[in-house]
Amino acid sequence: MHGMTTYCQVTGAAPVFGKSVSHSHRRTSRRWSPNLQHKRYWVPSLGRTVRLTVSAKGIRTIDKRGIDAVVAEMLARGERL
């Protein structure tokens, strides 16, 4: 089983850190997490399904460009599938 990633495997989006600023202007640390979803895709070029952790934007990228093109690019980058 794969370890859960906290970044999008398609776009590379990761949590962003910043501060919450209250009415009294006290600053406390917070983080903005990408909208990550676990999805399984059938990849014809690999002849198997792959389980990806993708952001909502990554899902749109796959819908637009096709899973084969996106997976080819991910493998070229050395992303584990």
Automatic annotation (TrEMBL):
One of its GO terms (cellular component) is ribonucleoprotein complex. GO terms for molecular function: structural constituent of ribosome. GO terms for biological process: translation. Belongs to the bacterial ribosomal protein bL28 family. This is Large ribosomal subunit protein bL28. Pfam families: Ribosomal_L28 (PF00830). HAMAP family: Ribosomal_bL28 (MF_00373). Keywords: Ribonucleoprotein, Ribosomal protein. It comes from Actinomyces bowdenii. NCBIfam families: L28.
